Amino acid sequence: MKLSIEVNGDRHDIDVDPETPLLWVLRDELRLTGTKYGCGVAQCGACTVHVDGRPRRACVAPVRSVVDKRVTTIEGVSGPTADAVRKAWVSIDVPQCGYCQSGQIMSAVALLTKIRRPSDEDIDHAMSGNICRCATYIRIRRAIHQAAGDAE
Amino acid sequence: MSETATRVGVGRRNFLVTSASLILGLTLAGKNAAAGGSPLTIVRGGDASPDLFIELRPDETVAITCHRSEMGQQIWTAMAQIIAEELEADWDRVRIVQAVGHPRYGDQNTDGSRSVRYNFHRLRVAGGALRTMLERAAAKRWKVAPSSCRAVLGKVTHPATKRSLSYGELAADARAQPIPAEGEIVLKKRADWRYIAKPVKSLTVPRIVRGEGTFGMDVQLPNMLVAVIARPPQVFGKLKSVDDSQTKQVSGVVETVTLDTPKPPAHFQPLGGVAVVARNTWAAIQGREMLELKWEEGPSANYDSETFAQELMAKVRKPGEVRRRRGDVAAALERAAETVAAEYYVPHLVHSPIEPPVATAKWDGDEVTCWACVQAPQAARKAVARACEIPEDNVTINVTWLGGGFGRKSKPDFVAEAALVARAVQAPVKLVWTREDELKHGYYHAVSAQRLEAGLDSEGRCVAFLHRTAFPVIGSTFEAGADQPSWGELRLGASDTPFAVPNLQLETGRADAHLRIGWLRSVANIYHAFAVQSFVAELAHAAGRDPKDYLLELIGPPRHVDPNDEGAEYDNYGSSIVEHPIDTARLAAVTTTAATMADWGRPLPKGHGLGIAAHRSFAAYVATVVEVAVDEAGRLTIVGVWSAMDAGTVVNTNHAHSQLEGGTLFGLSNALYGQITAKQGIVEQQNFPAWRVMRMNEAPRHMETTIIASDAPPGGVGEPPTPPAAPALTNAIFAACGLRVRRLPIFGPDRRDRLAVEGAKQ
Q: Burial level of B1, CB count in 10 A (0-12/13-18/19+)?
């Protein structure tokens, strides 16, 4: 079935089963491989993207559900909040293997967009859907606080 | 910071990969080989010939080949730091080339916390050799004495005449210089280091935060197909029948391929089953769900992990085979004023790197090129050659970034699968493991049972220490029927217990294996350190002593311990026991440091407790203190964690702290939630959250780490933080509420997360 979706500001005409998860459309059709597969059941958060600015697990979002919406991936997320998050991530060297970090960053940007000065409880709430097996949680928390300070 | 497109030239193969960010190796096959051969092929650690690792380019780029796999330990950065240091390279010019799997690099198995430990000296020599060659080349051009020239940050200068030439300008001349012998190379003094032992920024992180970089899962080739495999429920189960008619109705599915059932031992062989090959990943996954398969049970169909746990516990209640002996434990137990005994159980665990195993293979005639997230590219090469019955020289293994490894990706069964399926369909194939595949078809961390017995004298001092351990062995994966704990497993926290007790004995029990047993970050140290360090706190309690003081007393006076003197065969993690002794002073020092960091002994709020554990592994020393709070309902909070590590000379101080943080939390995650169970030989956990790992809201909010400054040779860094974490946590729980956890995990997947505090207080 022919669909048209908007990803990172670009329109893409694709021909796929409308039930295909957005994750596989991004990765296999559009070659946007920054969004990762980790579990396929919305339990690890590696596939987190923004749909109309809100975090969404792309592995369980049928592509039909994002037609007429704005999809943003790690490759396209931009603006002062995203800049502050990337800067904090780099200055602290948050990632280890990095595989989950696209999702971590997308969740962090969404959190800081909603709450400019998140508390530790806010961070727990917003970030607990993103597993990091390298367990970089200490640095993720520190980087979010740092990015919140920088963005002000 | 890495190559974006590289010509690969190994043996007869030579082609250009144009994918945006594939990272590939070159410089093999003597491309840059120096005239007259290399006198550096056998230095400590391996071949230190500079052309193996370094290419100076006319544009001033310093291309450094990393022969180890990048899986988050920041090995790209560390290897480059070591070489750039001795080369006096300008860090901003450094680019990484990832090596293919090839024996000329020596050991490439990125495992056992040995990348820096084994390669530190060798890479310094390689960098220093090329620096010497650059100085000599410049001296020749200027007709001055080489000793009057100095290489500094990418330039050779002649201070007397204020002349200078850049490395790029000198590259060709330097390559024409004979490679100096090791004795001619003057390594830099520690005080002059500008990169080593400094918090140099990661070479990978700036790309990671943009979603760039190529993990195994991200490999794309023209006309590539994607496959997933339905594997037999039990290891060595056979396929009875296949009906793929529904599968072939799924849009995008191309075909199915039946794979042979392997014969024991499992080794790194594919498990067999049916591959569904499709034009995209989703079609392959959907197609697999539509397969109608009938299986013949495998030999482990009676395996029930809970029944097995009971059998294993019964085993360690009886005397085992003595593997290390000091004094006479039996007599000392007899004489003791008080005896203490405790039994511990740790379940199967699985690696679950967030990137599951994945590999891509492309055939050209009878040669195959693979791209895969492998820790051990040479083992992958062998596994592919064996599975496809072709010579190793016909196999090229390109190493991508690894989205976590933890030991899983040093077992290259998945690469062999990719090669077999790609050959069958005569097209490039990316073979994807889903999370369910990763959890159900792993190489599992061994389940283990241990019993410890001790005798205390009338002063509460430990005079007899007996440790019995039984677990299915890693050797069973490589030799059918192996059931005897190996020295290689016992050295991981059992045969090397460094306690100052007059009578000490290690005994082992045999155990059959029913799943593929493999190594997982820090391996048998996980269960051995859990039991030994828990038992120390139990002895302290029995003696009415402070657990930290009692631990220090057991570690005893400063001395070197060699288990070989007491009947053990102890190989010290492959490092020289002279260079890397078991040094009780260093173990005591990390213990004291962690205790001081945590302000051990301070008054604590009601319901709080501190626990401590210290352990040497991979020639490094780590002590961890955990503070917990337990409320009356049994809810547990990890209030703080304090860890101190002495890993000798540390190449990247910042990233060593990262490993200390992450490795400690990895251990806490295992202890809190880690459990793989099996019924009828089938692993029960399908996906997260049944297989549970620590999340942000469960991680401690407060953690402090210290890396002890040391001039000792480098020890391991990636694994040593994990072993003491679990016992520090359970010791803290005991201190907080009197509940002694002897069976892990602490909590189940149901998220009820309550400790059984009622009546726990002893």
A: middle
